[in-house]
């Protein structure tokens, strides 16, 4: 059974080790053989065994909510909104420059629209009006005049914040350190390479940010 678990399947280890404690009443550490063998015989399980699995799946879902989604929401602070960086700027150095570049890149990627409401950015609309007058258009070449009453000021919001990614500087707070370590384990479960991609200054990449209206960025 072990040979059937490739490196690409390692992200499932957290899930399997979690339900193993319920189904087999034991902790297998990194050894997934017992739980995988047990699950392979699912078609022969009793109704009671299936009920235990159902309860374990519910408990795992609660584990994700309590240890990932709620901490993610609690750690969310409004991302500072510096002036967009000019397109000719050199490699960003320092937080403000990175955030400026992040804002610029996200607005371009999302076509200057909120990813949820699809409202166009008021600041960009004002700039285009000064340049093109009533002939102003959106990024797809459509007139913005019909949207003049619905445009809104947009902001760029981090998905995973720096504070939630950091494992340094929190040694004195064991609870926070454990919480962040758990977040890292869950992130690795979703995507083994996610931590490396958005750790440190990588958190200020467009892949870790969304364009939202101010009222949605809370």
UniProtKB/TrEMBL annotation:
Record domain HNH nuclease: where: 114-218
Stated name of the protein: HNH nuclease domain-containing protein
Lineage: Eukaryota, Fungi, Dikarya, Ascomycota, Pezizomycotina
